[in-house]
Write a structure and sequence with these properties.
The protein is α/β, with parallel strands linked by helices. Helices cover 42% and strands 21% of the residues.
């Protein structure tokens, strides 16, 4: 008798919440870590490299600044931070991702909602494509306000929803139908079906900007990149 495939926590019809979400996200990223970079490059046509460089440039911090990359994955943003002359720290709660980190930055397994760093100890923070994966986005923004020094800056990337209806339709078809097939071929099909659906976790850009403003950030900007395929939040910690 054929053995049924093992059920995975992220292979569900409804998006998980709370502790179930945290468990599912950690297990999923552990599973897809070995081919994560390859799939990213293919499914974004290497645009993800450009988006990360844009995020690091938007920090506008002096050379030598101490910057933590949160949900750092395999270290792509840490590499960009190092190229810009910054001192990067890598934090992720997926041990599989940290094992695949080739950036050379100091690595720490941690929940980014409760970072093991002192108050106002960081010059900056980056986070790439993970806002929708945190259990409580408001708590995450509060934690950013705690760890970033006055005058420090943050740059947060995630997938977006294009404003243009034609681009939005094409993006929906691509990420809803084609990306899962790429993921199934090269990595984990259910994971790459879950990831496009997880955009539903994200509030609108102006709502996230307001949340940052409420937590002590100023000059908050919400930018659409590549026609809205990706969004970038940039802000400065109030002095």
């Amino acid at each position: 008798m054929a053995r049924r495939p093992e059920s995975r926590a992220w292979d569900v019809s409804e998006l998980p919440t709370g502790k179930n979400k945290a468990t599912a996200v950690r297990a999923m990223f552990d599973a897809i870590a070995p081919r994560y970079d390859l799939v990213n490059r293919i499914m974004t046509f290497r645009l993800d490299v450009r988006w990360r460089r844009r995020a690091v440039r938007s920090l506008r911090l002096p050379v030598g600044s101490l910057v933590a990359d949160l949900a750092s994955g395999t270290g792509d943003l840490c590499k960009e931070l190092a190229r810009a002359g910054h001192v990067a720290l890598s934090f992720d709660f997926s041990i599989g991702m940290l094992h695949g980190d080739t950036s050379g930055a100091p690595r720490t397994q941690a929940d980014i909602l409760t970072l093991p760093v002192a108050d106002a100890s960081l010059d900056g923070v980056t986070c790439g494509f993970a806002l929708r994966n945190v259990v409580d986005l408001g708590a995450f923004f509060t934690e950013l306000a705690r760890v970033v020094r006055p005058g420090g800056r943050i740059a947060l990337l995630d997938v977006g929803v294009p404003h243009n209806p034609v681009v939005r339709w094409g993006n929906s078809v691509y990420f809803g139908r084609i990306v899962p097939r790429i993921g199934a071929l090269l990595s984990d099909g259910p994971a790459y079906s879950y990831l496009p659906r997880s955009v539903a976790y994200l509030p609108a850009g102006d709502e996230m900007a307001r949340m940052l403003d409420d937590r002590g950030f100023v000059d908050v900007e919400h930018r659409q990149l590549s026609g809205g395929l990706t969004q970038l939040l940039v802000a400065e910690r109030r002095a």
